[in-house]
Amino acid sequence: MFHGSMVALVTPMRPGGAVDNEALDALVEFHVENGTDAIIAMGTTGESSTFDEKEHCDVVRHVVERAAGRIPVIAGTGSNSTREAIDLTRCALHAGADACLLVTPYYNKPTQEGLYRHFRAVAEAVSIPQILYNVPGRTAVDMLPKTVERLADIPNIVGIKEATGDLARGQEIMQRCGERLTVYSGDDATAMALILAGARGNISVTANVTPRDMHAMCAAALRGDRTEAERINQRLMPLNQTLFLETNPIPVKWALCEMGLIADGIRLPLTPLSESCRGPLREAMQQAGVIS
Predict the structure, then answer these.
(1) Average pLDDT in the 92-115 region?
(2) Is 161 labeled as catalytic in the residue annotation?
(3) Is the pLDDT of residue 1 over 80?
């Protein structure tokens, strides 16, 4: 259903934290023009955890309207409250999103059975296509392949963003689920290898900064052109690493500000990028050719 380079879009903000809708429009155009294959609005990189429900829905609706069918829009609608996840997913459906991305419930630390029931409840309540999102480094809960396999039997659960960076984990999910569920990388550093192993794309932070190269790398890997994929991936690797010197999306928002694409707004409890990280990230951006 979806494939290629799928950007985990930042939410541009003015100093003080208000959403900058003009910059958001410009970012959508930037990705349309540079070949990004899908936009994820209000995911982790979009600082969704700092938004109330109305703000969250407003951003999703704004991105959908600006995209105007030119590029698929996937709305982040996960929550540690099943009821809130249903409400956000229903809002995304009404806003015209093409699918939703739902992170595992953070902080609660549900059991595997709790994870299954949570995602089943959302899928049964809202008919939109849904992509699971497993990122235990942030949520303190790890959805195991056997649980993903159970969820793959639910018709509108169509994929999983596997962000552990564990290639064996991604391959196990592909083996267990076959064509019932599409696997996407959620880790820029290992995305190429996972796509070459059978994943269908990368939900990417790096694509915010260098969308054309990330699209080209994913496209090469999808067609099995390892040589070309490795060539591009090598150029991207310094960015893949330095964009995580501090908690995402701190570095990527600083990088986009350096590129003149957004202002320097970010919401507490996140803070601007530390001075000590700016030199290495600037150097990686220069190596990738996004700044001179």
Answers:
(1) 98
(2) yes
(3) no
- Tens of pLDDT, residue by residue over 196-231, are 999 999 999 999 999 999 999 999 999 999 999 999
Counted residue by residue, the chain has a size of: 292
Domains of the chain with bracketed CATH: 4-232 (3.20.20.70)
- Check whether 92 has a pLDDT greater than 80: yes
Task: Name the catalytic one among 106, 109, 116, 133.
Answer: 133
Q: What DSSP designation does 19 have?
A: B
Q: Active-site residue 54, yes or no?
A: no
Catalytic pick among 116, 161, 184, 253: 161
**Residue with the two structure tokens 């959908």:** 64
The model scores a pTM over 0.90 = yes
- Strands of the chain, DSSP E: 4-8, 38-41, 73-76, 99-103, 130-134, 157-162, 182-185, 201-204
Output the six-digit token pair for 43. 């995911």
b/e map of 73-96 (b: 16 or more CB within 10 Å)? bbbbbbbbebeebbbbbbbbbebb
